[in-house]
Structure formats: C-alpha cells, structure tokens
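Cont'd.
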Amino acid sequence: MLSYLLTILIVMLIYILLAFSLDLQYGFTGLINFGLVGFFGVGAYTSALVTMNLGLPAWISFPAAMLAAGLLSWPLGRIALRLRDDYLAIVTLGFSEIIRLVIVKEDWLTHGVQGISGVPRLWPEWRSSASELFLFGALVTACAVTTVVMRRITQSPYGRTIQAIRDDEVAVIALGKDPAIFKTQVLVIGGAIAGLAGAFYAHYITYIVPDQFVPVTTFYIWMAIIMGGVARLLGSVSGAVLLVVLLEGTRFLRGVVPGVTDAGMASFQLGVIGLLLILFMRFRPQGLFGKRSAS
Amino acid sequence: MTLADFINLALNGLVEGLLIALPALAVTLVHGLARFPNAATGDVVAAGGFGGYLSFNATGSLLLAGLGGALVGAIVSLASYYLAFKAVMRRSVITLLLTSIGVGFFIRAVMGLSFGHELKMFSLPLTRSLNFDGIMLNPTDATLAGIILAVLAAVFAMLYVAPVGRMMRALADDPDLGRVSGIRNDRVMLIMWSVTGAVCGIAGTVLGMRTVLSPEMGWAMLLPAFAAAVIGGLGNPVGAVAGALLLGVVQELSTPVVGFVYKIALAYVVMLLVLLVRPQGLFNRPQGVR
C-alpha cells in the first residue's frame, strides 16, 4: 500500500513538472505546443544513455537531459514563430512524432522498439526502496525549485512581457520588444523542464520504450492544465493531481466491476478523459481555479 | 533499381496518396468553414470503416459496404458537430482543437468497447497482380483507387458546380459577407459535416479493405492527413489532394533509401520544409500571423 502511494505521488509530481512546462508555454505565453511528449522523451532517453553509456553518476544525467530537451526546442522555435495557431498545433505534433520515430529507428543508440531496460536507480548501491524514497525527495525538491523559478519568471517584468505577447502581440511589437526572442526563450525553458521530468521518469521506471512517448501523453497534460486552470501555478498542480486521480480511479473501477478486460479499461479511461475534455472546454474553459479562460 | 521498380513504387505511392487524400480533404473542408484542424477526423474514418465492415458482412456487396461506411461516417460526423462543436463554434482555435481531441478519444473509446481490439479483416477474394513487363498492377488496388477518384470527383463537383458549393466557398472566404448575402449558415454547416463525414467513412472502408480494421487505425491516418492538408494550405481543397498525392509518392519512392520507419517521418519533414518556405502552405495566399 505504501509503495503504491509512493508510486502515485511520484507520477503526480512528474505530471506537475510537465504541466508547469506546458503552462509556461501556453498559459502564460499563448504558444500552442502539441509536441510536449517529445521533449519529455528526449529527457528520459538522454538521462538513461548518459548514465549507462558514459558511466557517469545518475545525478549528472539530469542537467544533461534538461540541456538536450532545451536545445531541441530551439529549432522548433525557429520554425514555429512564423506560424498561425492552427498550423503551430499540427507542426508541434509532427515534431514530437519525428523525435519518437528517430528513437525507434536509431536502435544502435536507443535499442529501438525494444527500449532500454535496467536504467540505474539514483543510488544503485542502496536498497531499491531507499533509492525510491531518495528519488521522491529529489522530485519534491525539483518541483519546489521549479515552482519558485516559475513564480520569479511569471511575476517579473519578463512575465508581464510574455503575457502581453499572449494577449496582444502587435502591442508588444509597438513597444519595441521582439516577441520572437521571448517565444524562443519560453520554448527552450519549457523544453528543459519537460526534459527534467523525463529524467526523473527514466530513473524511476528504469525501463523506457518509444511507446511511452506517444502523443496521448501530451493531450493528458493539456487536460491537466485545462482542468486546473491556465496561467496559474495552482492550476497546474491541482490539474496534475486531478489527472492522476482520474487515471487511477478508472483503474480502480476495474477491481470493482467484474469482467472488465485490460483493453476495455483502457478504452473506458480514454472515453472518460475525452468526455471531460469536451465538457470542460464547453462549460468551464477557465478550469477549476483559473482566473482567465483557456480560450 | 530498374525503371519497372521505380514505376511500381510510384504507382503504389499514388494509391497510398489517394487513401490519405480523402481524410486530408475532410480536414481542409472542415477547416475552411469551422476554422480549426479537426483532430477527430481519423476516428470518424475508423468509425466509417467499422460501418463498412458490418454492412459488407451483412450483404457481401462492395457497393453497399461503401454506402454503409459513408452513412456511419456522416452520422458520427453530424453527431460530433451538433453535440460537441456547435456550442463552442465562435470560440478560439484551441478550444475547438481540444474539443476535437476529446471527441476523437470518445469515438475511439466507444469503438474499443463495442468491437474489441482484435484486428478485423474484410474477407475479400485474394487477387493476383497483373504483370506488364515487370510493372505490377493489383486489380483490388485499381478498383479501390477508382472508387476514391469517383468520390473525389463527386466532392469537387459539389464544391465547384453545385450552388451549395459556391455557398460553402463564399462562407469559407468571408463568413460575415456570406451571411449578410443571405447564405443560410446552418444549412451549409449541416451539408458540410455530412459530406466530410461520408468522405471519411468511405476512406475508412477502403482502408479497411486494403489493410485491417482496428479502433486505433484512424489515429495513424490523422497525422499524414494533417500533413497533406498543411502542405497544400489549410482550407484549400485542391491543395489537400495535391499534398496527399505528393506525400504518397515521395514516401513510397524514398522507402528503399530511408527504410520503413523514416518513410513515416518523411511526411512531417516535408511539411516542415514546405512551411519554412511558405508558412501558409503551397496553394494559399500569404496570410498574416493571426
């Protein structure tokens, strides 16, 4: 029971990091990113490979994961800045799929569809339960630090600028600021946060395959920030918590309702999320705690 | 690679491109009138595929299978409009886009719960390819390509010959001017959602006949359809079909060089390259950001 609770909490905190990343990009800056899972995946694979292939201690792999995911956000920014919202959504989605297909294909590095098993825990010489607790502590610290950084970013002149870009880009240009620079920075910072989430994921799950990084995960994080409310840190946190409760709740139902297969449960989960997404967008686009509407 | 191999790949690419052309056309028509990329398009394709499958098993007729697919596709598409999209029609792109993702999830869930996840196949007679000096022609593929061409011809006739097509194009061009000119928006929307649904349903039936049916098959089709519509320019019907054919042929011809996995990625790479040069797609006039 305790280990189950720990798992839930760790997954929740990883989702919170991802929600922060997306909220910075969409909630505060208005950048539609449908490719979030790609940067999550790059972080996971980078940290796993740095630890395993270069033989470096696990903690060094975390900054490496952030760097790789952040750097990869830069070319996306170069392409994305000239595009309208609808094109941007499709391009970012395609971008994350390109990343996934590269992971599948370059099996000399990534082991392709078989994935990488046996990613070392944070302190491989410790007992696994102790190592998990340590990872949990590190994750809590990382979330706290990210929260502080997000607050500093969003409640500063810089934060007012990115929110102005979201609300009225033309006015920002008229003030003599170049939105392109800010947008690129936000994409890179958000990418790095997603990469950090990926590094924690890899070292916690210890087994990564390309199938874990399909676009559905991106949409789940969108669901989280919509439910919680965009452009509010409390929204990201509560949305991620609610998402895990939903996903685990539907799994819990399976134990209660007899004769439900795994596939049936997965379908049911998908249907619940889909229906909630429709209802939230229609009746509560500002989310549970949001001050402003997602539309 | 001999000339015959090259021609075989190009022909195969054209068939693949035609398969993508139908959902790409649906994406672009919806975008023209409703101003958002509909992420549920692929799942309407899959639903239509199951409709065609049931209809084929009940009657054994290819024609009725196509009609069944079109009917189910149209019903699902209309239901998605009246139950989900209509209420948020005047809001932002992202509202409609996320709603469409929710709709797609819901359709996929209903299919998964109704039909299960084992792959289903149409029990069509196996046909031998005809060999013309090394150039292979598969009669089934030729028939399916013919069906798709007929559907494309019908849709374009509706768009460019029938009065309702002129109304659609007028509303796509300038909704407010269209409305004050007395075009009845509700009626045009009804027709547009049923036509795009029927087109998707036929696409699903044809795809199911050529490969296998599964609740997830629509998702695999959505991204290539998006890519084709973006390459041609969102909202541009000719562009969507041209984009799909271009992608199909380029992907097929590149397979011997880049392999099967990167063939799929190539669609998105071509899309990125086109947008780098023309942010509005190949066939659209330049537009400002927002």
